[in-house]
Amino acid sequence: MILFTTLGRYLAIRFLRSVAAVFGILFLIIYLGDFVELLRRASDAQRASAGLLAYLALLRTPTIAEQVLPFAVLGGAMFAFVNLSRRLELVIARSAGVSVWQFLTPPVVIVLLLGAVATMGYNPLSAALKQKANQIETGIFGRSSRENADTSLWIRQRSAEGQSILRAERSSDGGARLSGVTAFVYDPAGRFLERVEAQRATLEPGAWRLDDARVTAPAQEPRQHPSFMLPTSLTAEQVTQSFVHPASVSFWRLPEVSRRTEAAGLDAAGYQMQYQTLMARPLLLLAMVLIAATVSLRFFRFGGVGQMVSGGVGAGFVLYVATKLTGDLGGAGLLSAPAAAWSPAIVGSMLGTLVLLYQEDG
Hints:
Layout: H1 6-41, H2 50-67, H3 69-86, H4 89-95, H5 100-103, H6 105-141, E1 153-159, E2 162-172, E3 177-186, E4 192-204, E5 207-216, E6 223-231, H7 236-242, H8 254-263, H9 269-279, H10 281-296, H11 305-331, H12 337-361
Antiparallel strand pairs: 1-2, 2-3, 3-4, 4-5, 5-6
Helix pairs in contact: 1-2, 1-3, 1-6, 2-6, 3-10, 3-11, 6-10, 8-9, 9-12, 10-11, 10-12, 11-12
């Protein structure tokens, strides 16, 4: 097998170096851009020093860089294949009887291992750093940086008495205390019962305690309650989790978080979509390698490198847009999470294989 030959090791090292170089450049660009943005936002924050902001940007960058990993693989693969072609190394390999499928084996194995490591190792690390960054960012900026944005929070819950939807203007204590609360209460059959408005809501075992509540029900006069108890099956941990973005949850914790979220009657589509996206990452990276191979393996004796680069970047961008589009549909519950996460990677891999078959084998 070529993977264990001198040629295979050489191709694997060249490919890995190219991908690492492109990813490192993208990581540095993201870090510098985020650092500049934090400096702009912190112009009125007295507790924000340049060193603290540099540290905060470093904590935030891995999560953002994780999203551009497919482009790093695409760019690194194109760079490696073009260099091998221009230096006639692939021409010599082909003349020695090595097919395109053979010298693609080392990059394919490398990229599958890279995808697995990125999913099982890099993602938990970036999620932990993201959570730490959120804590530091809250301490520096609080909610002042979003004072012009809609900061409403929505919670859907169910209990033995029925379902209810809570809207709160603000939250504190990890979501266990809410301010500016409006609750829409339904019976087990889904019929609307009443609307409850309160200044504050505090999560207690088995119920929300709404202080100074005004209850409005159909065909009834509004009633005022000093304290109104709204049953709930949520725990403080589940409420806190409902405010956590899926990107801030480790790959290993996503199934459990999704299960608990569903059990509490909350929408778990985002967590399910994130889990399936991470599972499909190795195949997506493989699709990027195949796309790069379709435009980078021919002999560039008479030029055409610019057109090749444009074609490869365009194809990769189309695949990335398709991935984001299906991801949004899956996160909204309009598509099943497995179909939304896996379909772009499967289609991209099949199209790349088809084009290579046409180019190499006629």
